[in-house]
Amino acid sequence: MRKAVISLLLVSAVITGCGSAQDTPQSATSPSAGGARQLTDAEQLRISDAQQQLIGTCMRRQGFRFWEAERLSLEESRTLGYVLDDVGWAHKHGYGSRIDAKDTAARASNPNLAYRKSLSEQRRQAYDEALDEGIHAPVIAVEIPGGGTLRKRIGGCVAEAEKKLYGDPRAWFRAEKAAGHLRSLYVPKVLADQRFSAAQSAWSQCMKRAGYDYKDPGASRQSVVAQAHRTSEAKAFEAERKLAVADANCARDTDLRPIGEERERHYVAQLRDRYGEALDTYTRLQHQALGRAKKIVGPRA
């Protein structure tokens, strides 16, 4: 399901990003960075849309056709974090399974895939080189928090678009990956925190009173995935919707989100001595990209 990853260590964030895309004060893609305001879902989407437009302009300039990715609505594109406390959204979308299906179908029917496949071998190679330089692109690497190294080829129209938005694609890649992978360091601490555990237990007791027996929101969503394979789509979605509404109501009643947000900020602050520069760079480059994106595309409806 969209952003509803079952393993708690792989969630987009423990708590943040659960308000509506229109009014969420923080993004669910990174921890807080030294008090600087994190971008909303709507603002991040605007950067993404601008990047798509820049890539398309670049590809067409090099003689290729290019279709920008089909856009979900702003409401559909919300980031679904670990805690869902928007009862209205849950009543309408459940945990987002139908949005997931719509997005998956759009990706599968992406006209760029069919167009590339229709090209001759020589033109296909030229297409790949124009897009990102293919196997000939320079490779950059970054060591991520928690251990390990990530590499990325950076070239072609993709690199050109990132440069126009972020200024330095290499600096952006390093900051983005460092900030994102801090989750492996702070998420386990939040989940083990006494205050958060108590709030999660209260959530579980609330769910029992509503007729559901789950120890945490991750288990609740996992049950929806399992149910989807055992019944019709319509029945599965109705069950998902009812469960998500109960989940959201219990999250509100137990203050699970604000408690989790506070505990998240506490543990992220402990990492600033080592990773503060990466966090600040990440936020600075995001705001820079947003300012440039506003000159390229309007907000998503």
Automatic annotation (TrEMBL):
Biased composition range(s): Polar residues: 19-32
Superkingdom, taxonomy of origin: Bacteria
Span list, region Disordered: 19-38
Keyword annotations of the record: Signal
Keyword Signal included in the entry's annotation: yes
Signal peptide: 1-21
Identification of the protein by name: Lipoprotein
Species: Streptomyces liliifuscus
Lineage of the organism: Bacteria, Bacillati, Actinomycetota, Actinomycetes, Kitasatosporales
